[in-house]
Amino acid sequence: KLTSLALQPVITSELVEGRVHLKCTYSRPPSKPLLQYMVVWSRLSTPGKKEQIQRDTTPRSFSYVEMNGVNLKLGDTVFCTVTAFTRDTPEQQSLPEESKGFYAGIKFLPESLQIAEDGKEHVLTILSTVPIACPGHNDSCKITLQLSTEDLGKDSQLLGPPDITLSACQVDLLRSPCSESSCAAAALTVTAVTDFAQDGNRISRIRAEPLRRRDSLWRSYTPKDAKVTVQDLPTGNCYSFTDPHIITFDGWRYDNYKIGTFLLCRSVSREFEVHVRQWDCGGHRSATACNCGVAAR
User: What does UniProt give as the signal peptide span (predicted)?
Assistant: First the structure.
């Protein structure tokens, strides 16, 4: 056998004659110029099991495979395995070296988020690892993604409204030169809904669905979801009840028997305000006020 050559195969993606191809590139040892390379392309068919899709023998330091939507589709995780051998003695082979898995398609970064009901915004990036081919539409070559959110309960059963909100309902992935496995990217923010309910930690998912799929490669493809876990935080409560007894957020208690409209609560850090209106609900002997209206902003 040949000694270890450190071929270090890496998969990237690019457009070749307007069609999406994956490219396996590997190092060519300068001390051995007369080497041939056998490149085996495979895809992850089931977890832990690979399926061979193409085999090349070439003197070049790269190999291509086309994403034709049949044996290689968007959503596949692809590997290339390279073995070097001498032209004169092909039985003298190096140990095969496998690339890292390359996910071909759209993915969220990070793939999962853990956030809390604290009002903070968290940046989520959506990127395509393959270039976007738009024949005849090079001026505005893009994929438009429709975003939606769903709440996941136990056993992945859909529950009620989601626990998160997004800064956009649609994003455009505009084609750009591929760099570090990103050929198009967009960013949005995710915020946990502050619902004032003690409902425990909840899991929501974000879905992205490509719209106006002109290209057959994109037609049957749905990207993976992003999972967002929302940590439930304890919330404060204040009360105004009966004739009105008032309990503030910090537990201070007092009464207000007056008639009129009053400021019940105002935030100094955001636009949040609650007014309460009280009317005379007592008899001739004692003056008593009761809540008759509330306005919140």
Answer: none
Q: What is the pTM of this model?
A: 0.76
Which domains does the chain show, CATH number per domain?
10-104 (2.60.40.10), 106-231 (2.60.40.10), 239-296 (no CATH)
Kindly indicate the confidence band of residue 46, based on its pLDDT and cuts at 50, 70 and 90.
confident
DSSP the chain: -PPP-----EEEEEEETTEEEEEEE----TT-TTEEEEEEEEEEEETTEEEEEEEEEESSSEEEEE--SSSS-TT-EEEEEEEEEESS-TT-BPPPEEPPPEE-SEEEESSEEEEESS---EEEEEEESSPPP-TT--TT-EEEEEEEEEEE-GGG-B-SS-SEEES-SEEEEE----BTTBSEEEEEEEEE---------EEEEEEEEEES--SHHHHT--PPPEEEEEE-------EEETTTEEE-TT--EEE----EEEEEEE-SSSS-EEEEEEEE---SSS--EEEEEEEE-
What pLDDT, in 10s, does the model give residues 47-72? Answer: 889 999 999 999 999 999 999 888 89
